[in-house]
Amino acid sequence: MIAKAKSISHGINALNYITGVSANKKHPEKIFHICDNFLPPGIDPLGIWNSVRLDSMSRPRMKNNLIRIEISPAPEHTRNFTPDNWKQLWQDFVTEFDRQEMRDKKGRQLSPRTNLAGSKSTVWLHLESDSGIPHLHAVVSRLDENGNINNDRNIHLRAQRAAERIARKRGWQTATNIHDINSKSVSRDCLDVLSKMGEWSLDDYFARLEAKGYDVKIRTDEKGVIRGYILKKGNAKFKASELGKGRNLMASKLEETWNKLHPAQDRQTKADSRESDIRPDYAAYRPDTRRVDIVHDDETHTRFISEQVMRVFDDEFDFREVENWAVLINEACYHFAVAMSFMSFLNTPVYVSGGGGASNNDLPKKRDDIEEEIARARRCAAAARSKIGIVRRKGIRR
């Protein structure tokens, strides 16, 4: 059960709306009169408004002279309600509303008890045009029949607390219960998004949530660092600190949560799968490649390496100048093969400084950029030269 309350100055508009007089509604709801308090029978909205205004003349400094209240119980709780049941619900609400005395943390009074029960009011039942979901609308005078003002400080909290108390007494779901249930659903959506993200990215996380229908509001500090976020869906708002377990969906803990959902072994498997999708098939002929027989541990491996890479090796180990060019090119191709992970001897230690690729060196991991391949080839040539050494030919050089 949910309740809202607000003090207003546009009383005649509110009265026209709740009584169904207003012609501005595009899809009129079904509206039924439930009860009045301290008002003559059959009085119309203008008559109620004039009566309240007349009372308010004794309080010229009071700007808002009416309180607008909405009460929305869950439909399943009021399915068989009669008009008398709705009237009793309103009276119970008023009792709980008036019972509250607002105090601060030190016990000082912020707002005295109200007296809605002793004030002019009119109450109407609305059924939504499409769904038929019922809810009560009421308008109450800020002045009670004794001339005292119904204090409107924190009036929205009074309404919420009154609704919570009634719901607990009747064994209904409270707004807090509903919020807790919904937050669990939102948490599942957040974890589902994290589990489907192949790589960690905060922007991707927010984008995927928006794709699920959430409105994401991000809070940043003065340096632009994201410190928190709120998810909205419909009228419901969910702070990140309310979601998940142990606040594991807060902005500061999201990456840690993603890591737990993606163990290192799984992430490596996915990375290998992605790389294999874009890695050329070096065992089969492709245009602009050269067949190379790589000898290692007395075994020969035939592979097809791009002409651009082979030209790097040809230039580095020119057969006209280098006596052991064939051995060096074989060694360089071997390093390149291991770095590109297309040879079967991946566990053989190979040291190529300044790079990455295989697990035992730091050659770049990109496979699809020929410039990266050429840069990698140059480092492989340097590694071969460092390991074997160059034997220069004697005589005339180019």
Sequence of strands across the biggest β-sheet = 1-3-7-6-2
Low-confidence segments: 343-368
Q: Provide the succession of SSEs.
A: EHEHEHEEEEHHHEEEHHEEHHH
Number of domains: 3
Our Rg estimate from Cα atoms comes to: 38 Å
Proportion of residues in helical segments: 25-40%
Counted by DSSP, the helix tally is: 11
The major pleated sheet works out as: 5 strands, antiparallel
What is the name of the CATH topology of the largest domain? Answer: BirA Bifunctional Protein, domain 2
- Termini distance? 92 Å
Structural class: alpha+beta
Tell me the fraction of residues in β-strands, as a range: 15-25%
Tally the beta strands.
12
Can you tell me the overall shape? rod-shaped
Mean of pLDDT: 84
CATH architectural category of the largest domain: 2-Layer Sandwich
The CATH class name of the largest domain reads Alpha Beta
Describe the structure.
The protein has three domains: 2-173, 2-Layer Sandwich (BirA Bifunctional Protein, domain 2); 177-262, no CATH class; 280-348 and 369-397, no CATH class. It is built from eleven helices and twelve strands. It has helices spanning 11-19, 45-56, 83-99, 155-170, 175-196, 202-211, 254-261, 264-278, 307-316, 325-340, 370-388, and strands at 2-8, 30-37, 66-72, 102-103, 109-111, 119-127, 134-144, 215-220, 226-233, 236-239, 289-296, 299-306. A hairpin with a 6-residue loop joins strand 6 (119-127) and strand 7 (134-144). Mean pLDDT is 84; it is low at 343-368. This is Relaxase. It comes from Heminiphilus faecis.
